[in-house]
Amino acid sequence: MSHAHRSLAALALVVAACSSSGGHGDADTDDATETDGATITIGDGDGDSGGDDGDVPGASCDAPIPRALRLLTRREYEATVLALVPLDDAADPGDAGDACEADADCDLSRESCTAGSCQADPCPLHTFVLDDPGHAHASVHVAGSFNGWPASVADGGWALEYVDAAGAWVTKRALEDGTHTYKFVVDGAWQPDPGNPMSEPDGFGGVNSLLPVDCAGAEPPPVPGDPDAHPAADFPVESRVTGFPFDNGVASGLVTSVHVEQYLRAAASIALRVTGDLPRHVGCDPAAPGCLSQFVTTFGRRALRRPLTDDEIATYVAVGEAQADPTTGVAAIVRVLLSSPYFLYRFELGQPTEDGAFALDAYEVAGILAFSLWGQAPDDALLEAAATGELDDAADIAARASAMLDDPKATAVLGDFAAQWLDVEHTAALTKNGAEFGAFDAELGAAMLAETRALLVRLVTADAGRYADLLTSPTTEVSPALAELYGVELDAPGSIAVPASRRAGILGHASVLARQAHSDRTSPVRRGVFVLERLLCQPPPPPPADVPSIPDVQGGQTARDVLEQHTADPACASCHGLIDPIGLGFEHFDAIGRRRDDDHGATIDARGVVRELDGTDVAFDGVPELAAVLADSEAAPACFATQVLRFVAGALEGPESECRNDALIEDFAAHDHDLRALLVATVQSYATAPRQAP
Q1: Which sequence spans correspond to the domains of the chain?
Q2: What are phi and psi of 497, to 5 degrees?
Q3: How far apart are CA 154 and CA 146, in angstroms?
Q4: Cα dist. 135→58, 131, 132, 161, 169 in Å?
């Protein structure tokens, strides 16, 4: 094990030791790995996934891949905890929120109605509210440092809409970090926000309202004051190494003092939920003989994702019995279990084999299946499969993976993969120029994200989709507002067929187009880099330190005019010669993904070229042709297979995984680029791969 992993494990053990009032950590066993001053139990070693490899892609590859301790991500932690200790009988961790038809059906101060349910607003999104129960005013807009203090909506002011149910004027806007000043303009008269006590002199004898925003890329608790429902809301945001688009990177799983504090706080909150309904969560009277042992055995198996040894059970029971009363004892046991490194980390260490490598045991395989396909820990059925030898062979693993994709729990993780792969996670929090793009708001941004998540889910779980469908499918699921943006009639949320002449697959999704654009204009550079990085796995080199900036578009100029001028500089040509000919092909779509035929009166030329695609330059004209070019290539589906392996493995491919990655790419092509088959093969290959000796 690397020094970094040993340090992580040792620090995690401190968490376990701190959480028990009796000072108990996890019990040592005979089968353990030494760390920096601590011992980590690997497991009982009963499972063995080293059976028949069958037709596993990469089975003939000799190089073992690294062993790993993988810190749970915020989404993995939360989904796992909500499965362990559900909120109530009707609660479903996959539920998005209360049903709604409009924002007024939700708590307007912190929620929006998105895709039929109330969803918490992300951190950068602020709700401006002006109470007016009698609807005495005719118009209200907000003006401030964030939008240039416009005197009217026509000049860029952010219009508030009157919501009868709330008796107030309301608008939601995403704001950048910093301290903003603003006023309401009510029927033409300027006034500070009466609902905001923070203000400063405006220099004209009055005051401006003050609004500090400090999100730093993080999202606040989805439901403020409700840690039970969202225990990971305050956990630090996962860092992502350059070139790795996902939140589950092994290398970025560093435990800080903030992690320790939040883990302890979350464990204490969850323990209170357990003791608040003992019959449901414990299943017996804690004061009855044998109850604590029964609880530790069953709850501990789910929490640690493997059976506990007799010594471990005895240790946890002793923690409970050392407390003042049985109920407090149950709470202490829960706190220790949920602060254990065996809960906080995904263990992929394995057992030694005759050839000197390591093979994952069945419980570690179960963890890979569950976290890769469900985004959470294994359930009882999957743990039982590990216990009974149903995950010992590669064929068994593949069959189980395929079945798991039919479970509703797969929907969330497939959507998360799509959002992270395509860099559209925070579409709802984008800021767009109100004067130019007044149609864009948080609700529309959330609908854009929902469309992109839904496409991959549908192709994998319902439509037997191929990779080409991701790029060329004209069928999509949209809200009425998004349908209006696309120029299609829709009375209620549902599936529509968008004309292929307008857009095709993910390249035409407004989430991608809006994300890869500026607040007030398109960005062919961002869009070109997106295709190279995310769809072709060919990121351009970083620009030189002295590279000149791209000049602003002047009157009568198009983006193509400006970029051709920029690329004329030899210092810029090497990179922009690859980027710009792709990005300019998106110019028929503006900064929020709306179709346009001209750029402020200037004719758009959307012709482009993908350089060295499968060894040759390929020309196209517009997004639908670009989508078809990529769908027919070898490079794009090969990159997608690589991205799936990165997500499952939590790491960029290294020399030891090149052979396995190549085998998965070949297998993907052999199966006509079947998306479901790729997911199954990748999980199967990763789970059965030998691990390196420490």
Answers
A1: 3-87+234-404, 103-213, 412-633
A2: -110, 115
A3: 16
A4: 68, 9, 5, 11, 9
Secondary structure element (H or E) that encloses residue 180, with its range: strand 178-186
What is the signed CA dihedral for 666, 667, 668, 670, rounded to 10 degrees? 90
Angle at 132 between CA 126 and CA 133, to 5 degrees: 120
Copy the structure tokens of residue 692: 């390196």
In angstroms, rounded to a whole number, what is the distance separating the alpha carbons of residues 187 and 204?
20
Task: Please list, in sequence order, all residues whose beta carbon lies within 8 angstroms of the beta carbon of residue 508, skipping any fewer than 6 positions away.
Answer: 498, 502, 589, 593, 623, 624, 627
pLDDT higher than 60, residue 336: yes
Is there a contact between 686 and 282 (Cβ–Cβ < 8 Å)? no
Main-chain phi, psi angles of 177, to 5 degrees: -60, 145
Query: What distance in Å separates the CA atoms of residue 583 and residue 526, rounded to the nearest whole number?
Result: 7
- CATH fold for the domain made of 103-213: Immunoglobulin-like (2.60.40)
CA 531 to chain centre: 20
Instruction: Give the phi and the psi of residue 340 in degrees, each rounded to 5.
Output: -75, 145
The pLDDT-based confidence of 296 (bands split at 50, 70, 90) is very high
Range with the poorest average pLDDT among 200-214, 619-633, 679-693: 200-214
- Which residues have C-beta within 8 Å of that of residue 390, sequence separation ≥ 6? 396, 400
Which is higher by pLDDT, 55 or 414?
Answer: 414
More reliable by pLDDT, 227 or 87: 87
Q: What is the pLDDT of residues 641-658, one digit of tens each?
A: 999 999 999 999 999 999
3-state secondary structure of 255: coil
Identify the three-state secondary structure at position 161.
strand
Angle between helices 362-373 and 409-421 in degrees, nearest 10: 70
* Nearest-angstrom CA–CA distance, 337 and 654: 34
At 178, the amino acid letter reads G
- What is the rounded CA–CA span in Å between residue 612 and residue 359? 40
**pLDDT value of residue 31:** 39
CA distance 169 to 143: 14
Report the distance separating Cα 30 and Cα 256, nearest Å: 30
Does this model's pTM top 0.85? no
DSSP β-bridge partners for residue 34 = 39
Band (pLDDT 50/70/90 cuts) for residue 114 is low
The CA dihedral of 132, 137, 138, 142, to the nearest 10 degrees, is: -70
User: Is residue 548 pLDDT above 90, yes or no?
Assistant: no
Q: Is 3 exposed, middle or buried (0-12, 13-18, 19+ CB in 10 A)?
A: exposed
Identify the pLDDT of residue 637: 98
Cβ atoms within 10 Å, residue 163: 16
Count of CB atoms situated within 10 Å of the CB of 659: 14
How far apart, in whole angstroms, are the C-alpha atoms of residue 254 and residue 70? Answer: 10
- Quick one: what percent of the chain has pLDDT higher than 90? 61
Tens digits of residue pLDDT in 490-520: 877 788 888 877 877 999 999 999 999 999 8
